[in-house]
Amino acid sequence: MTHTVEKIGGTSMSRFTEVLNNIWLRKKNNDLFNRIFVVSAYAGITDLLLEHKKTGNAGVYSCFAEAEQEDAWIDRLNLVEEKLLAINKQMFVGADLEDANRFISRRIRDAEQCMQSLHSLCSYGHFQLEEHLSTVREMLASIGEAHSAYNSTKLLKNNQIPARFVDLTGWKQERPLAIDQMITETFKGLDPSKELLIVTGYTQCSEQLMRTFDRGYSEMTFAKIAALTGAREAVIHKEFHLSSADPRLVGEENVVTIGMTNFDVADQLSNLGMEAIHPRAAREIRKGGIHIRIKNTFEPDHLGTIIDNNYCNPRPCVEIIAGRKDVVGIEVFDQDMLGSPEHDIHISQTIKELKLQLVNKEADANSITFYVAGNRKKINRIMRLIEEKYPLAEVKMHNVAIVSAVGSDIKIKGMLARTVSALSDAGINVLALHQSVRQVEMQCIVAENDYEDAIRALHFSLIEAENHGDVIRKIAV
């Protein structure tokens, strides 16, 4: 295990000159090689290909799937091509630009022809478009990653660095393989000690990654490659440090960079939309006994944050104040609920089918509240479905925010009281409060417009007042 597997996020990829200088051309242990890079699409491209991750605004896929305007998806696909060619123009000139444009335009045209044929085929009653939509979604998503990986390889070669484009998208492959087989066969014969391997963040496989991970597919590709190739370390390059809070809210001078934490904390952050890594992807890496390092792309000298399976803070404390304000509380009051799990089971299943994120839920004798995140169209749809299923129930929607105190060990007497007092002293009303017996997180539900003040109040009381300092790192680069 002499190599690392490293993932570069889309925001970082868009600043390709800094990625080149801060990551690819920067030696690790006096060596440019023994590194495998899994790259995401450039920032915003996957939103254009599928749909906007946060707002739900239509992309190529959603226009094709909803078919409200028959040819709207073609216009969107042409818009994507224009955007990709514009990125190419920023990176290359002359023959290199022509080659880069030819590669991505060919993919775009192949996808367009495939979707046109599918649309025509499904005009016959024996074929249903819905049965093929997941495959279309996977095909479109792969375009962004193929574009960034191909361009990155060309950029490295232009800088006299041996590099290889490793295409896991299975473009025009006769049949999909299982993901383990796809990765194992693709990497057979490749030698990261002699060239940088630039890998697409999307992997075509028989399991269809997007059915389970949706937009987290690149993290699963990254995790599988790390586990199957026996990496000594898995590195994630992001545009920020993993810190004690969002520096834009509490001030850069007040945040503490987290030196070490564990996978349990990473899972809690993922649940709040602050994904260090998808929990299922993290499980693959944990099974391989590999630790993860989170690094800031734009501060290459910083050692970053180690996520290690066995780490526990030697001094119990709150390490991170995190949260999200794009949360809706769906409250269902029904006296028929008493003593029956039916409402919980049915509504939870509906949330899963609509691909809404269930952040938390709470219940008493005759009511249950689900805290979910997702686009407004899906929120409105689940409200209608609940009302149709339970016509006698009273269903309400609350726009709320969640603020959380998270740590590898927060089993401290009085911590819950301190948390509530900090919010109360700041004039913030706590609408609901959640803490599990494992005591790695405390979640406070507050009004949406209290979110930023709540983050600042908890960070000041639970972290700044404690003067943590950076946690000592026990694992070298």
From TrEMBL:
The keyword ATP-binding applies. GO terms for biological process: homoserine biosynthetic process; lysine biosynthetic process via diaminopimelate. It comes from the Bacteria. GO terms for cellular component: cytosol. Residues 4-296 form the Aspartate/glutamate/uridylate kinase domain. Transmembrane segments: none annotated. It catalyses: L-aspartate + ATP = 4-phospho-L-aspartate + ADP. Its EC number is 2.7.2.4. Keywords: ATP-binding, Kinase, Nucleotide-binding, Transferase. GO terms for molecular function: aspartate kinase activity; ATP binding. It is an enzyme of class 2 (transferase). Residues 403-459 form the Aspartokinase ACT domain. Belongs to the aspartokinase family. This is aspartate kinase. It comes from Neptunomonas concharum. The lineage of its organism: Bacteria, Pseudomonadati, Pseudomonadota, Gammaproteobacteria, Oceanospirillales.
